[in-house]
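We emphasize that the prediction below concerns an isolated chain of 106 residues; any contacts that depend on oligomerization or on bound cofactors are therefore not represented. The input was used exactly as deposited, without trimming of termini.
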Amino acid sequence: MFSISSKAAEKAKLILKNEGKEGWGLRIFSAEGYCSPSFGLDIDENPQEGDEVLEKDGLKVFMDKQTFDLLSEIELDYYEDEEQEGFILKGPMPSCGPSCGGSYGA
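Result of the prediction step, given as a token string:
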């Protein structure tokens, strides 16, 4: 099942608060790529009809059913080091199989 780390939830809530969008949620979406889907992250006020809605520590995450199914074994996390920081999807990413080099990570 898709999960959200506590660190990702806290960072997202801070970003939403700083943007004046406290109480909004994150939207994760997929776009078909050459071999495997790519994923994006955006801010959204409300879920759309048919969305899966997940919550972690007060953060809402919205995904359409297709994206939710693709990310069933993935965790949304947040990383930071001295050079960069950002959200990351961790786990076995979907792909079209061995002919495309297997799965990829963010």
